[in-house]
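Translate sequence into structure tokens.
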Amino acid sequence: MISRKLKQKLNNRIENNSLRLLTDSKGLIDFSSNDYLGFTSSKIIFEGAHQLLVKKTLQKNGATGSRLLSGNHKLYVEAENMLADFHNAEEALIFNSGYDANVGFFSSVPQRGDVIFYDELIHASIRDGMQMSNAKSYKFKHNDIEDLNFQIERNRNERSDQEIYIVTESVFSMDGDCPDLKSLIAFCQKYSYHLIVDEAHATGVFGDYGVGLLQKLGLENQVFARINTFGKALGCHGAVVLGSKDLKAYLVNFCRSFIYTTGLPPHSIATIQMAYEELKCTSEIEKLIENITFFDQELKSKHLTSRFIKSNSAIHCCIISGNENVKKVANQIQIKGFDVKPILSPTVPQGKERLRFCLHSYNSKEEISEVLELLATFVCI
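Result follows.
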């Protein structure tokens, strides 16, 4: 039996129509998952990972321990070298998940006396990491460099050893929009601030071979660190922090979410390697970009553009205020066979509840047109 305090929190969620439940979307047309390229179901990747394990004589179900003890199997070294080369970084360090990478990085890198400034729509994993840090943190308005500068001037101190860290995402997970990375980098370089960019939803989507938005813009070596995850377009699991040799050494020595956890099993690392090999030759990225363009055209033709947050990514969100309202529309669309999920407050601010459409290379143009036609009939235009 849980305590009355815990039960009351659950009851509050029920009253606010925001109680989270685990559901099964099997059989519905996918407009919800992060599997942008369909790599999760790729037989080529699955079988390639198995063959790699056979070749390396690493047919084990687990890593046997943390990487600093017994879990640093030889595939790790190969994979991190491959990732550093692919993403044009000095070094790469694999983490068990994007959450682990963000919590570990932001709880260990900024020190006491340092200050972190973060976009107000930053991912929850980064917020959790900052809460564990000895550094102070302050938010700035979404994609607003002017407000960022104001917050820095307002909250910095005169300590000679103070470091300032700024964190953003190249594609925001709940809005699907992008910051002006060129201007943000120029701003950080002018004042010697450290910029960290989470590329979770840009990896596999932007740039040649899906290298990410920073590399597409040729800016990858002008940031302090990048965090790329494999659970979205790569269709597998884990994440990587890309940065300098010294940063990698520091994380290996001081990052608790890296040090005190069992390493990923060989099969997970082999799958990451095969997913990246598939990125180099797949046509799925082109199909995804075509669908993103077509989705935008359909929004215009169906007069839905004003209801959506502007986005050039695979994530498109239709604002429908109120948990009850957005859940009702989502349910109506799901009954028609389309898996479109409502995003409720408190995950997003109250009044900013939305339907989140995730596009994929395997969505047909007919499916895109039909799901938006359904949406148009269910919302007041």
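Note: The two ends are 47 Å apart (CA to CA).
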